[in-house]
Amino acid sequence: MFGLNKKDSVLFVLVLFLTMCAPFLLNPFPQGSELAQFNAGYPDLMQRFVIFGIFAIGFNILFGLTGYLSFGHAAFLGVGSYAGVWMMKLLTMNVIPAIMISVIVAGLFSVLVGYVSLRRSGIYFSILTLAFAQMSFSLAYSVLTPITNGETGLQLNLDDPRILGVSEVNGSIPPPNLFGLSLRDSAEMTFGNWVFTFNTGYYMCAVLMLIAFYISIRIFRSPFGMMLRAVKSNQQRLNYTGLNTKPYTLAAFVISGMYAGLAGGLMVAMDPLAGAERMQWTASGEVVLMTILGGAGTLIGPVLGASFIKYCENIFSKINDNILHQWFAFMPDGIEDVIVFLVHPFVGKGWHLTLGLMFMLVVIFLPGGLVEGGQRIGRLFRRRKPDAASDASQTKPAE
Amino acid sequence: MSKMDLTRRGVMKTGAVAGAGLAVPTIFTAGSASAFVNEPTGGSVTLGFNVPQSGPYADEGADELRAYELAVEHLNGGGDGGMMSTFSSKTLDGTGIMGKKVEYVTGDTQTKSDAARASAKSMIEKDGAIMITGGSSSGVAVAVQALCQEAGVIFMAGLTHSNDTTGKDKKANGFRHFFNSYMSGAALAPVLANAYGTDRKAYHLTADYNWGYTTEEAITSATEAMGWETVETVKTPLAATDFSAYITPVLQSDADVLVLNHYGGNMVNSLTNAVQFGLRERIVNGKQFEIVVPLYSRLMARGAGENVKGIYGSTNWHWSLPDEGSKAFVKSFGTKYGFPPSQAAHTCYVQTMLYADAVQRAGSFNPCAVVEALEGFEFDGLGNGPTLYRAGDHQCFKDVLVVRGKENPTSEFDLLEIVEITPAGQVTYPVDHPQFAGGALGNCNPGA
Amino acid sequence: MDALLLQVLNGIDKGSAYALIALGLTLIFGTLGVVNFAHGALFMIGAFCAVTMQRILTLSYEVVDPTRTDFLGQPLKVAVPYVEKFLGESAGAAIIDWAVPISILLAVPFMIFIGFAMERGLIKHFYKRPHADQILVTFGLAIVLQEVVKYFYGANPIPTPAPDAFAGSFDFGAMLGMEAGNIIYPYWRMVYFFFALAIIGAVFGFLQFTTFGMVVRAGMADRETVGLLGIDIDRRFTIMFAIAAVVAGVAGVMYAPINSPNYHMGMDFLVLSFVVVVVGGMGSLPGAVAAGFLLGILESFASMAAVVEFLPGINQIIIYLVAIIILLTRPRGLMGRKGVMED
Lengths: 399, 448, 343
What we know:
Chain A is mainly alpha-helical and 399 residues long.
């Protein structure tokens, strides 16, 4: 399908199914039930899943294929965001120009950073990218305040010119739209106690993620992708054969920078504010963690890793003692308090602890990341089948 | 890249899939029948408490959360009612808000605009919160305020001191009870002139971000009006942990006052460093060298330990205030948690009460009705004396406290002593004051 | 001139902290080849050893003082530390005053324990794993350590003052015969500088002049061959890891009076220390130390008002800018060895 081999087609269809049905899949618990706390099917988080998915897919094109570990990728997401917001301030609330400019600006910036940083490899490359990103962050936070609005973050105002649009509608800033279709609009479907939300913005992001995912598959399977893998396994040998690897690595760097820009553009399209923290090293570190956690070098791993981290951040941080007591209210008082006391450090303000522990557990027990976990489960089923078959073959003669 | 054979057929197929994806939402009818977003329909109403629970302000956030829980308890008729008995408006009766039981959700702002907005959004979209409140920095307050304006819910700011929150970034759906940089300057300057004389040379160290800028501007203009001279203003990076490189040039200058426009961890470190470098023993131009910290926070002052003794600053509220409202609040907070509340806790508690009262008076949860009820609202009994919620910029005007680090603290909470209660009239400014120029409230937005 | 001298002084104490952290990190990172994102957390734990010691020494019982009242209007309970009860008020107060130096006694064994536990329990299994996995596991560990500290000590900075004898500052300029009052320098920062020199000297001496150190250096150069010679290099690496932990830990202890420790301080230093190590050159201990002092001093210079006026924002980015320039002009940092973490 679409020039993909069978295995990739299956994967693509799976991702297609998952993203399109996400509002159902992420809201498995009925409203009002105690488990509804774990529902993730609200627009903002679904958008985050796919946007960070795009970011991680792009990062994986660089890191998974070439092995170059960039520690400054958040800078591209950041400049993309700023460019996007400026477009919405100056031109129009239609998000297409904003997203396009985000990708372009991030691409240009990554050409610059990549050209310089790729002169070194290994850890030296990582530190160069880190240095560029930290410089961007520090400057955006302080001296570049006229462009970036510093700490507060760049946001829309009622007096923005918006040449091709309107500055305000009834004293409010008009919502971002896609050719007139407001991205904030949601349709709700009620099914008994279940409520499913279908958000325009989410579906726009999802479609873009599918395209991004498709391109990523094509890159992985192309001769270009082979060349990048060759860089990873032995760059020296490539150089000795007279091949200049730099154009290839630079191309990969710029492509992944543009993915980051696309993610940045989508972030401001969903929520028109660009904060400087987006460029901090912790943000760069986050995408590294997402990719490794999911499984670096695999196609779907980064998306899983991104969703996992964002889920922890948004769901676990909101569980407070009050909710814990509700959950365990059925238990006798003493035991209830003990359980709440035991669970308490891991949720609410302790959500970082859970995240840290999950990082360690995954990397210790699933060396290939979450994808390996999936494969192991898959293998478990597959192994059981032959067993069942052999059981059957053994029992037959006995009859 | 050479073998990207996107055939025309392939593209058309992809496009068809994308089109189908986009078409999905239109199958259902968007929007609902309610007049405003998250209209509470059942027997309860949900408020969103969005406070820092990780990062440097986590303890301040934890204190805010305690205050919110206390406020909810009081609104639902539990506890001793706290300030409900001293509040000049008597509409709250302990039966929740408009007869609906108050429930709440909590979230972690991480003191980052992005994370704070994500958390607020999840409260609005997932939990159906009708009002968002909290926060411990101006960047977050401005970001979340803008979000609430767009989403059509009320934002009751927590601790945010930058002029911009009710200045150039003010929003119709956002309200601030906390004081601001301008008020700090206006309250501090006369006290400083009194204590240190009018012939002083000030050296400013300013945190290099938005709040730092507005505070520096406010303090320099207020002190210069008193006759002080500003020798130098230096910006320090937010990430700085060691301020020695910024403190030592003070020794080379002829300044005799150091103003630290720093908050939180920055304040703790810069003040500690300044004391380490012997600035307090210094004599310049025959005068004792002095240090000033415009915005004090008791929680943070604790981190600086001994170093805060005798140092002037301003705060929004302090638990040692003798009025009935403050006493009632300190009593119910102290009884429940075992220590006195911080100014952050106070402002958050008051904001929740004010919101509940406004809904009650308006007789509706509709944000526009609430905005109308709060605008120009005058009240008393909430700890800061008679207070006005000004309609023009949604800023509270009330007394401001000038405090000083206590020489002989009796406990770890007893770090500050009140030097003067500056009356509201002295810190009031016109809506179009240059320090607050630009921006507009816009119209209230009820969402749907 | 005075201003420059002062900034050099500021630079060397900042540089001392950078150098100490980088020294420990480069032992693990540059030589064992493990990307240890938990190194900052070790520094933080060291600082909290000082806090803990302070807490232990000030363990108190409460005496009710009926003449004063607390915030609720009840009689004030005054805390009296047990040390003051057992050793008399003045001796007790003196011991509490010296809490930070005393806490080194706690920090050294504790950091050795942490180092052993970390290496044996976790890092050992990651020597052969890709760097990516090492990053994930050590980052996870750093978060866990940080959150545990936050759970017990809260998020606010905790004041840990230096002993009164070192609390003030002295007039460095007057000592050099310059005008008095211009070059003031705190005692404790001087102490920190000499302490750093001593630790750096001890680590170098240990590696240079002991048989153990020789074997470790051989192991860094060619681990396989040393193993084939029948030497248990693994055990020695464990000890090296513990030493690195101790260096980071005591650096943290002594840093506590300079800036009040909070649970987040490790992360603030983490990125910086990686930059320092890489600028110094992978696998080079002298490089790491030199880079630490170099970046510390440059950072101080960059924050001078005259410099910032000329190049706005330079004080925010100087470290990274210098890192970029050095890495572009010297491919392996200041003194890096060939082939260490280059692919």
